[in-house]
Amino acid sequence: MPRVPLSISEAKNLVSSLSEIEFTNSEIPGYTWVKKESNYGGIRQRWLVVKSEARTKSDLASLEKKMVKESESIQKKLTKLSQKKFKSETEAELNLKLIQAKLKFHVIDERQIPENQDETYQITGKIRPNNDVIDVYKNRAVRFILATNRLDSESFSCDEMLIKYKEQQNVERGFAFLKDPLFFA
User: Fold this and answer.
1) CA within 13 Å, CB half, 5
2) Containing H/E element for 63?
3) Cβ-contact 15, 145 below 8 angstroms
4) What pTM, to 2 d.p., does this model score?
């Protein structure tokens, strides 16, 4: 049972757009899912968007670390930038845009570029979380998509798809030792 990569735009948009009320409780405790049809690559498929309670906490903790790291990094850059004097307002704005372009989870608000007495410009601003973007990333972090070309959900139910996927993981874990260089030593 293959997982659909979230690097595919259709998959990324799907996991981001689903609301919590659309999910159905699985027979497998701790899992919920939403069934959707796709015609990706010209092939009709049944996609199962899955949410796992067990993965939710760790995925959200990982996302939180990334957001804190970005916030700290940008705060340092903004502090350094606010001490620098620019020859023109355009130059200051360009430097601010370069920083803003690298932000994933935050935006720079209350931006000001006042002219100083010595006809130079300095930047001030505050960092705030971009909650709309963060919500999208939270949805992506805790959801994944399974795909099958078996469209009939009566002969192959959504819970069966999830069970087959979990069984596949057990097999893969069982052979993981083969990748260990110490196994062949």
Assistant:
1) 2
2) helix 53-83
3) yes
4) 0.69
